[in-house]
Amino acid sequence: MERNNLAFYDQQAAQWWDETATVFPLSQLNPLRFQFFDRYVPDWRGLQVLDVGCGGGYTCEFLAQRGAVVTGIDQSAACIAAAQAHAQSTGLAIDYHTGVAEQLPFAGDRFDIVTCVDVLEHVQSVPTTIAEIGRVLKPGGFLLFDTLNRTWQSRLLMIWLLEDWLRLIPQGIHDWRQFVSPEELTRHLQQADFWEVEIQGFDLFGRHPLSQLQTLWYYWQTGSLWAKFDDITQVFYIGMARKHGNSMSTG
Ligand SMILES: C[S@@+](CC[C@H](N)C(=O)[O-])C[C@H]1O[C@@H](n2cnc3c(N)ncnc32)[C@H](O)[C@@H]1O
């Protein structure tokens, strides 16, 4: 079976904003992850924000509703078309582009913030992506991200349980070998001139296997998720990295 099958996103694009779409649970992560991101950016109004791997635009619209000036980029032209159509229907001005994270079509030192959520586990090259994000960020700008660690726990939960057994996530959407550990990511960030890095577990499923099952059951019944931030980074983790320099302030 093909792994990290990105064609899935093209196939999903037309239904991206339907509440019954396979990808729709991704939209529910934003209120949770921004509890963490807001620690570093308390006021988003007027900030130039780039969302890398924006899909059909859940995070771009979430950011635009909070007053950010938003640009989104994704490798899937179909997702970008869906994102543009939805932004038009909601009246949000978002600048969307088709393109890859490894070669961002933007001038250097342009954005105050880059968000990259649920994407680093899919890109072809994490170091190149991080270097590109570092290039387009203003000095002192923030990269805010979440991604999957490469551990036996993430393989067990994300691949075997959620993809292969319960089929809650499309089979083949992840390639476990492409997951990146917090240590590897920190090294890439430091090499790309990010001087401050903070990473915490994005504990969607709970600390204990039983509470993981409880959360899955709750999700199954209600369609909603809960999360906490802690030191458990074995599956899903969230973080902030700040580019060297200080030409911006986030209020
Ligand atoms: C799990 S989805 C996340 C979408 C969005 N960030 C969200 O959370 O709603 C992963 C997205 O990353 C995009 N993607 C994967 N590799 C990419 C790359 N190298 N450059 C740009 N986008 C990429 C996919 O097309 C897909 O839309």
TrEMBL record:
Biological processes per GO annotation: methylation
Domain Methyltransferase type: from-to ranges: 50-145
InterPro entries: Methyltransf_11, SAM-dependent_MTases_sf, UbiG_MeTrfase
GO molecular function: 3-demethylubiquinol 3-O-methyltransferase activity; polyprenyldihydroxybenzoate methyltransferase activity
Keyword Cell membrane: no
Source organism: Leptolyngbya iicbica LK
Domain of life: Bacteria
S-adenosyl-L-methionine keyword on record: yes
Swiss-Prot/TrEMBL keywords: Methyltransferase, S-adenosyl-L-methionine, Transferase, Ubiquinone, Ubiquinone biosynthesis
Protein name: 3-demethylubiquinone-9 3-O-methyltransferase
